[in-house]
Amino acid sequence: MNAILGGMYRTWLRRVVKLGIAMAMAGGLVTAEASMWLQSASRDYVYGVDDVPEAPVALVLGAQVYDDGSPSPFLAARLEIARQLYAAGKVKAILVSGDHMDWGYDEPGAMWLWLNDRGVPAGRIIEDHAGFDTYDSCARAKRVFGVDRLIVVSQAFHVPRAVALCRHLGVDAAGVGDTTMAQFHAPWWQASLREYGAADKAAFDVLSGRDPVFLGRPETGVQDALLQG
C-alpha cells in the first residue's frame, strides 16, 4: 500500500511541476511579447533633451515624494528635464501628474513647488492629482486636459512604456528619459527589472481599454497656460 501511495504521490508531484513549468513559460512569453510591443511602439519617439521635437506640453510622471514634501532624487531628475525643456522653449506648459489619493501625500503639489522654485512660472504648471499610474496619466492628459501632443518625461527605463501607452491612447507623444540616476546602481536596476512586470500590466490596460481610476470632468488648465503665449 505504501508503495502504491508513494507512486501516486510521485506522479502527482511530476504533474504539478510540469504544470508550474508550463505556466511559467506561458507567463514569460506574455511578458516578452508585451515588452517587445512597448519597445517597438516607442522606438522612433524617444529623444534627448536637445533633439526632441517641440511640443506644447511636457508631461512629467510622478514618483516618490518624501515625508517632508521634497521629491525623491528620481523624481527631481525628471523635473529637471522638464525645467530644461521649458527653458529651451521646447514646451510652453508642464503637466505634472501623480498620486494624491491620500491627503497627506501629494506628488503633483511637490512637483509644482520644485518647478516654481526653479523659475518656471506658476501659470505654466498644471497639476493632475489623479495620475495614479502611467496609463491613467496618459489617458487623463488626453481626456481631461485635452492634450493631443506632448513630451513625456520619466527615467529612461520607463519612457518606452509611457510613450507607447500615450500614443495608443491617442496622444502624439515623444519621450525624454533621465539617465543620471543610473549612478545609483541598485535602485536603478531594481526599477528596470520591475518594468517587465509593468509591461504585463500595460498590455492588460491596453487590451481591456479601461477608464482611469478617476476620470472626472474636463479641465482647462493646460489651455489656459498655453493662451498666455
From TrEMBL:
Pfam family of the protein (one): DUF218
UniProt-listed InterPro entries: Cell_Envelope_Assoc, DUF218
Transmembrane segments: none
Gene Ontology CC entries for this record: plasma membrane
Descriptive protein name: DUF218 domain-containing protein
CDD domains, per the entry: YdcF-like (cd06259)
Coiled coil: none
Domain DUF218: 57-196
